[in-house]
Amino acid sequence: MTESATLGLFGLGTMGSALSLNILEKGFSLHVTNLETEVVGEFVKEAEDAGLAENLHGADDLAKMVAAMAPPRAIILMIPSGAPVDETIEKLLPHLAKGDTIIDAGNADFHVTRRRTAEVEAQGFTYIGMGVSGGEDGARHGPAMMVGGSPAAWSGIRDVIEGIAAKFEGSPCADHFGPDGAGHFVKTVHNGIEYADMQLIAETYGLMRNGQGQSPSEVGEVFERWNKGVLESYLVEITAKVLQASDTETGGPAVDVIVDAAGQKGTGRWTAIEAVRLGQSANVIEAAVAARAWSSEGEARAAGSAIFDAPRGDLELDEADLEAALLVGRIVSYAQGFRILDAASAEYDWSIDYARVAEVWRAGCIIRSSLLGDIAAAFRGDLPEGQLIFSETFAKLISEGLPALRRVVGAAVAGGHAVPALASALGFLDTMRTKRGTADVIQAQRDFFGHHGFVRIDGRRDQHGPWWD
Ligand SMILES: NC(=O)C1=CN([C@@H]2O[C@H](COP(=O)(O)OP(=O)(O)OC[C@H]3O[C@@H](n4cnc5c(N)ncnc54)[C@H](OP(=O)(O)O)[C@@H]3O)[C@@H](O)[C@H]2O)C=CC1
Ligand SMILES: O=C(CO)[C@H](O)[C@H](O)COP(=O)(O)O
Predict the structure, then answer these.
(1) Does the keyword Oxidoreductase apply (predicted)?
(2) Choice from 22, 42, 79 to test ligand 1 binding pocket (greatest atom count within 8 A of CB)
(3) 187 catalytically annotated
C-alpha cells in the first residue's frame, strides 16, 4: 500500500465498526462492507448520526466494495480468527490487483499469519498481520496496534495506523515489530499477560470476598484506591467499576448474577502453548489459562465442594500485603510475557524491540499500566542475564513485595483458597533465586531409567551414576 491507497474494511462487528468510526474521525476516506449486508446500512446510519459519513462508502458485499475502490487498495479484515479469515482471503484475492494489501487486524495465531503471508505474497499482493488492542473503546478512540509485515508494507500503512492509534504523551501507540507473524505474536503475548493480570486480580478479589467477608462494592473501593497507586492500570480501574455496579434486576452486586465460568477465544492458550513449545514456561499465564478452563467445570466443582468439604479459613490479610502481592504477581506476568517474546524473537529472527513493545502498551490497550514506562526504561538499560526481574527497578519492587506475596499465598493455601496465579508467581520467584535447585535428582532419575547421562559439576558431559553396579 502507498500513502494514496484506498482504505477498506470488512467486518462491522464490535471492533470493526468502532475502528471505522475512528478512521473516519481522523479524516481518512473509508469503504466498508460486512458479511450480513443489512449491517452496512445500520453502520452508515450510525456514522451519519455521528457526523462522520462524509468520506464513507458502504458496499453490499466484498466484491462490490473492492470494485468501488481505486487501486492500490488496503483492505482491513476485522473478523473472527481461523476459517473466516481464510475464507475471506479466498473470496477477496480474485478481485485484487497487484500492489493491493490485505491487513488482518483481528487476533490470529501467528503461525497461521506466517502461512497466509507466504501464500498471499506469492501471488503478488502484500499481507499484514496486525494486532489491535483496547476493546471497543480503544478501537473507537485510539487502540494500541502491533504490526507484522515487510518494512515496505509498514511504511505504506504507517500514516493511517499512527493517525488512529492511542497516543501516550503525544507518541503513537503503534509500531512495526518484524515480518509476517511478529505483530500478531506480540498481540498474542499481550493477551497472555492480560489473562494473567485478570486472574491475579480475580484471585485477590476472592481472598477479600470469600476469605474476609468483604462485599463486592467494598472490594471495589479497595481497587479504586489501589488504582491511584502502584497498581494504576486499566484492568484495576475497570475491576473497581464492575465490583461497585448493581444488577438492574436484583439490585444486588452485578458480579453475583454472573456465572463463574470464564470464556476464552484462544489467545491466552496460544501464548501458553508457544511458551512451552519454545522451551519456556510462563507459569503465571499458564495458571490463568488453566483457571479459565477449570472455571468452566461448574458441575464438577460443585461435586468436589461436597466431597471434600474443604474448609475455607477466615483470612485477616493486610490490605497493603494484598496490594504488594498483586503488584509482584503483575510484574512476574509481564516479565514472563517478555521472556516468551525474547524466545520467539530469537527462534524466528524477528529482532523485536522490547522497549518499544512496552511503550506501545502504555496507552490504548487492555494491559496498560503505570509499570510499562519502567519496563521500557529497564529494557533500554542494563538488564542482568536479560531478565526484567533482575533490573534495578524491578528487583527492588520484587524484594520489597516478596514477603507480602509469601504471606498472602501462605494464608490462602492454609485456608484452602485457590490462588493458582499468585502461587505460580511465588514459585517462579523462589525458583529464580535458588542457586542450586533439585534438578540433579531429576537428572539422576533420567540416567537411572534411561541411560540419559548427566553433566558432572566439574563440567564433564555424558556421565553416568553408580546405580547399576
Ligand atoms: N472484542 C474485542 O475486545 C477485541 C476483538 N479483537 C478481535 O477482533 C476480531 C473481531 O472481533 P469482534 O469485533 O469482537 O467480533 P464481533 O463478533 O463483534 O464481529 C464479528 C464480525 O465478523 C463477521 N464475521 C463473523 N463470521 C464471519 C465469517 N465466517 N466470515 C466473514 N465475516 C464473519 C461478522 O459479520 P456479521 O455481522 O455478518 O455476523 C462481524 O462483522 C476478532 O479477531 C477478535 O479476536 C481484537 C481485540 C479486541
Ligand atoms: O483481544 C482482546 C482483548 O485484548 C479480545 O477482547 C479477546 O477476545 C480477549 O480474549 P478472550 O476472549 O479469550 O478473553
Answers:
(1) yes
(2) 79
(3) yes
Ligand 2 pocket member 264 (CB < 6 A): yes
Residue with cell 495458571: 287
Average the pLDDT over 160-186 and give the result.
Answer: 98
Residue-level pLDDT at 311: 61
Contact between residue 33 and residue 41 where contact means Cβ atoms under 8 Å apart: no
Is residue 186 within 8 A of residue 341, CB to CB? The reply is yes
- From 267, 269, 367, mutation site for ligand 2 pocket: most ligand atoms within 8 A of C-beta: 267
Domain ranges of the chain: 6-180, 188-432, 441-469
Confidence band (pLDDT; 50, 70, 90) for 309?
confident
| Residue 2, pLDDT above cutoff 80 | no
State the chain's maximal CA–CA distance in angstroms. 86
Least distant ligand from the CA of 265: 2
* CB of 163 shorter than 6 A to ligand 1: no
Q: What is the ipTM of this complex?
A: 0.99
**Which grid coordinates belong to 297?**
467445570
Is there a contact between 292 and 264 (Cβ–Cβ < 8 Å)?
yes
Q: Which CATH superfamily is domain 441-469 in?
A: 6-Phosphogluconate Dehydrogenase, domain 3 (1.20.5.320)
User: What CATH architecture does domain 6-180 belong to?
Assistant: 3-Layer(aba) Sandwich (3.40)
Tell me which of 25, 87, 119, 187 is the catalytic residue.
187
Domain 188-432: homologous superfamily in CATH: N-(1-d-carboxylethyl)-l-norvaline Dehydrogenase; domain 2 (1.10.1040.10)
pLDDT in tens, 410-462: 999 999 999 999 999 999 999 999 999 999 999 999 999 999 999 999 999 99
Distance 424 CA to ligand 1 centre (A): 33
Check if 266 has its Cβ closer than 6 Å to any atom of ligand 1.
no
What is the number of the ligand closest to the CA of 264?
A: 2
Closest ligand to residue 193's CA? 2
Secondary element (H or E) of residue 75: strand 73-77
Residues in the chain: 469
Q: Is the CB of 106 under 6 A from ligand 1?
A: yes
Q: What is the pLDDT of residues 17-33, one digit of tens each?
A: 999 999 999 999 999 99
